[in-house]
Amino acid sequence: MSQVEAVERELGFLDHVPMGVFVLREDFVVLLWNYCLQEWTGISQEEVVGKHVEVVLPHLSAPPYAVRLRNVFAGGLPLVFSSQLHPRLIPTSPGEGRVRVQYTTVTPVPAPDGMSFYALFAVRDVTERARCVEVCRAMRAQALEEAQERKKVEAALRRRNLELSLLNKASQALTSTLDLDQVLAAVLEEVRRLLGVIACSIWLVDPETDELVCQQSIGPQSEIVRGWRLAPGEGFVGWVARTGESLVAPDTWTDERHFKGVDRQTGLLMRSILTVPLRVKRGVIGVLQVMDTEPDRFDETYLTLLEPLATSAAIAIDNARLVETLRRQTAELEVRNEELDAFSHTAAHDLKGPLGYMVGFAKVLAEDYSALADEEVRRYLRLIVQGGQKMSNIIDSLLLLSSVRQAAEVKLEPLDMGHIVEEARHRLAYMIEEHQAEIISPPTWPVALGYGPWVEEVWVNYLSNAIKYGGEPARVELGAEPADGDEVRFWVRDNGPGIPPEDQARLFVSFTRLDQVRAKGHGLGLSIVRRIVEKLGGRVGVESEVGQGSVFSFTLPAVARDEATGKATDKTGEGAS
Amino acid sequence: MSAIGSSDRGNEDLKERVNAGVRRAADVLSATLRASVRLEVLLVELFSGPDLERKARELQMEALCGVQLAFKGPLSGVALLLLPLADAVQLVVALTDDQPGTSELDSIRIATLVELGSVVLNGVMGVIGSGFEPRVRYALPVDLDDPVEALLTSRGPARDVTAVGVKTRCTIEQHRTTGEILLLFDAGSVERLWTVIGREVGVRS
């Protein structure tokens, strides 16, 4: 019996297994080629059995396969040929151009002689498994892709949530108050907390100068930055305010637009700066800036967060400014209304007195003229003239007050105070003579800025009060000295009885008349003085002690040396003309 | 745990056998893959008893995959090739031009890994298992399904098992990984191994 027949008898059952099986002898002669393999390869058993394997599978008898098979023929370890490393170990095709994916194992089978071994090839069709793996891989790849996509969407959602949270909190903060400082502080607190930045600030455009003023700032050394002014176009804030575009500066060291003055002052080097404009309908009103000491800190995400916030903040700031303006105007209107009430009351009251006795004396004259002595007639007429004069004075004062109130702007000029005081004394000559008053003036006066006709009224008021309410005889001393800041303080000292502290507080309030103390006065004088002096940029004041006389004063802006009219002057007036 | 020392002639011979097996495996792999393959033995150790249990727990801490080759006859036990999972995937992908796609070992990749592992284990066991009469019989190599600890448990108490651990560095073209060959010998097998080694040493000397 041949070896082929012997193998067929021993292993013939393998003809019916659903996998490819063939057996090789040590000399590479095929001893078995099962039906399955015949069907897969299209090679019949007759074509191959008993023949050298190179007839159908020449690669098996050549290296590296021959080397590995040698060990099997020696009864050694079984072999594995995987589909990925040996895709065409046994060329088979399921048709339609498809490839059968195989997984082949080779095990030694003892030969009948008991000495040698045959190599039993078991070829498994793992095409379906490979297809499943491919499907699984594709599904997994798709799942991974979807997971990635979902991650992206989730990240976008998280970002959006953060934005909304920021906007929501900021909006709450922004709408919780209409106080400008509180609005700015609230905006910055929210920005710093939610973005986790080192510092942030809000700069607003000064409408008069177009400079950018740091209105609010939080973070280290923020008090140094607050109030800073940058010229139009200067620094990142200037650039953003001018262009209206947001700016991400990843590294300030390499950006020439960065204004390094702030860093120098604070001692902090801000490497990353993000600046966005605060824009309302009429244009950019300022910028919002966030900073960090780390470079490359801000990206588009931060920009996306900050820009909507800046829009809300700009509206809130604009509203707060509007409300502030309205409040100020309302307060001014209220003061004006009160003044108008007091004005009408004072005018009526003060005019009523002289008018009353003028009418009374005129009536006596009209009815009893023939019965009156000439001397009496002349006295009544004098009294009527005095009353008219007094009314005329009151009306002049009211007109002056009205003109001061209505004057929008007044041009300030260096004043020749000696001349102005002299004019005032001249106007009061009758009163000075009547009260035998002694007026003591300094030999020279410092040069201050003001408006001559108004300042003359101030002196007239102060002097007339000092004469009227001073001692008997009145001794009135005038003087001037430098005051705090760039101002000159002018004063009038009398030798009167002094004014109690509770009355001092009411002296300059509009249209107040201190009836007990100043029985002969009318309530307009000191109100006018205060109006004039404040309009000229100065302040009024009084120092008095009961029994020690009083000092009434006012300040005016001093003249800088180069503003003097060709002569060297200073705040003390030395060398002033 | 004890490193194989040069003072022990049998151990030295075992180490030599391991080296020879690994060299043979490298040759076969180079020919099969048509690539430059280098296998280096870094360390050969013997484990038994508590050392082996500790080793098993240590291996269990890592994400490993592997190939196992059971054998029986005069020498019985199982030979394992253990590789870090990520390295194994990279290795298969690099050798087969497979699409990286996923980082997992699917059944197709596992089959490839089994072939590669079987070449290595065949090399080592082909040398170690030679010289026995009757012959050592080998099962088909398969992938390692169970954890190493479970494998040890299934083979009986660890004190009855002796293991030879071979730390091996494998360099295939640009790819490099460090794996471990673990030869677990059932009770009595290792003694028969020493006998065979001793006899061969005696013959040589």
Written overview of the protein:
The complex is a heterodimer of chains A (577) and B (205). By secondary structure, chain A is α+β, with helices and mostly antiparallel strands. Chain A is 46% helix and 18% strand. Chain A has 16 helices and 18 strands. Chain A has helices spanning 3-11, 35-41, 45-48, 65-73, 127-175, 180-195, 222-225, 235-243, 261-266, 300-368, 374-406, 417-427, 429-434, 452-469, 501-504, 525-535, and strands spanning 20-24, 30-33, 79-81, 102-110, 117-125, 199-205, 212-218, 229-230, 247-249, 272-280, 283-292, 413-414, 438-440, 449-450, 475-483, 487-493, 540-544, 550-557. In chain A, the strands form four sheets. A six-stranded antiparallel sheet of chain A has the order 8-7-6-11-10-9, sandwiched between helices. In chain A, helix 10 runs antiparallel to helix 11 (374-406) and helix 12 packs across helix 14 (452-469). The radius of gyration of chain A is 54 Å and the shape is rod-shaped. Chain B contains six helices and eight strands; from the N terminus they run E-H-E-H-E-E-H-H-E-E-H-E-E-H. Chain B has a single domain, classed as CheC-like (Chemotaxis protein chec), CATH 3.40.1550.10. The model of chain B is unreliable at 1-7 (pLDDT under 50). Chain B is globular, with a radius of gyration of 17 Å. Chain B has 205 residues and is α+β, with helices and mostly antiparallel strands. In chain B, strands 1, 2, 3, 4, 5, 6, 7 and 8 form an eight-stranded antiparallel sheet that branches. At the A-B interface, helix 4, strand 3, strand 4 and helix 5 of A face helix 1, helix 3 and helix 4 of B.
